[in-house]
Amino acid sequence: MATTTTTAKQNGGAKTMKSQIVTEHNGPIESREIPIPVPNANELLVKLTASSLCMSDIAAYAGHLGQRAPVCLGHEPVGVVVETGSGVVGFKVGDKVGFMPFRGMCHDCEECLSNQHRFCDKKHEGMTQLYGGFSEYALADPFSTVKIPESISDDLAAPLLCAGVTAYNAIKTVAKQQPGGTPLNIIGVGGVGHVAVAYAKAMGYRVTAFDIADDKLELAKEYGAENAINSMKLADSDIVKTQTTVVISGAAPAYALGVKATKKHGRVIAVGVPHGPLTFDMLDLILREVSIVPICQGSKEDLDACLKMAALYKIKPTISVKKIDQLEDGFKAMMKGEVTGRWVYRFDN
Ligand SMILES: [Zn+2]
Ligand SMILES: [Zn+2]
């Protein structure tokens, strides 16, 4: 496979790079020197500057997504194009880019043909094995890659590559059936949730945010929520139902609240990933005609729109910038629920 060979063209002749490897699930993260990958004719090689930690990385680290170790995680990468394959159009060396972790799409199936490349059965999941976003270099597929607006710093752009585009796509899905200016419940104000509140506010919604942590409710207010409610202290009779409810927490009680907080004929937009199957009272859903609508990240078009909207409305995720050798601390802190917003790792400090 091309990703295991090296070239001397890159990085002034350097052939290897540091990659942060999860050696075993829930185990130590090691910095290993591995070959710099080589782009094929349709790929970009990107020298990463910043990469942030997402709850999906935590799920993979904990083994909830199956046996993956040894693996380099990270799927919110930003960097500079240092090499382009001979068939690449639209990108050049020096472009500041961010990308989603999908490569090798077929461009011929009904998903690819409708610009939903992330659902292509031929794609490689993640940035593959040891070549994730917590490496100094990564390969990017132009169909998953966008240019980062100049006004957005690399550190602030990184969380938008997964959290941002997911939040944007969730609120865009709300907007398909519910106009701006109307009330919207958002449940869970973590890394994705606080950005979702910001996009909802930018699209004109009047947000009520729910969480079980008071500091996250404060964050929701800072990002424009009109009401912020601790769901641990909430009686069912106090819930004000909205036409759509966005559930961003993966906890089962968050989904239970999501259904309760949704009006008849309404939709629960499912973003949060639970650790196992959820049960719903199907009779309750049927009798009220409430639908569950899942959201999986977003298209390249969504990512581009999400970044341009962030530039236009000055949407800035809450971040803490860390050194790459502090990565393991981030995984542990995320697992304990101690991270507010996003931890962003830089490769140059
Ligand atoms: Zn395809
Ligand atoms: Zn993610």
How would you describe what is shown here?
The chain has 349 residues and is of the alpha/beta class. The protein folds into two domains: 2-161 and 316-346, Alpha-Beta Complex (Quinone Oxidoreductase, Chain A, domain 1); 164-294, Rossmann fold (3-Layer(aba) Sandwich). Helices cover 25% and strands 25% of the residues. It is built from ten helices and 15 strands. It has helices at residues 55-61, 110-113, 154-157, 163-175, 193-202, 214-222, 252-260, 282-288, 300-313, 327-335; strands at 16-22, 29-35, 44-52, 77-84, 96-99, 137-140, 145-147, 183-187, 206-211, 227-230, 242-247, 262-270, 291-294, 319-323, 342-346. The strands form three sheets. Strands 3, 4, 5, 6, 7, 14 and 15 form a seven-stranded mixed sheet that branches. Strands 10-9-8-11-12-13 form a six-stranded parallel sheet, sandwiched between helices. Helix 4 (163-175) packs across helix 5 (193-202) and helix 4 packs across helix 9. The two termini are 32 Å apart. The site of one zinc ion (ZN) has 4 residues, from loops. One zinc ion binds next to loops.
How are the secondary structure elements laid out?
Layout: E1 16-22, E2 29-35, E3 44-52, H1 55-61, E4 77-84, E5 96-99, H2 110-113, E6 137-140, E7 145-147, H3 154-157, H4 163-175, E8 183-187, H5 193-202, E9 206-211, H6 214-222, E10 227-230, E11 242-247, H7 252-260, E12 262-270, H8 282-288, E13 291-294, H9 300-313, E14 319-323, H10 327-335, E15 342-346
Parallel strand pairs: 8-9, 8-11, 9-10, 11-12, 12-13, 14-15
Antiparallel strand pairs: 1-2, 3-4, 3-6, 3-15, 4-5, 5-7
The protein binds zinc ion (ZN) (2 copies).
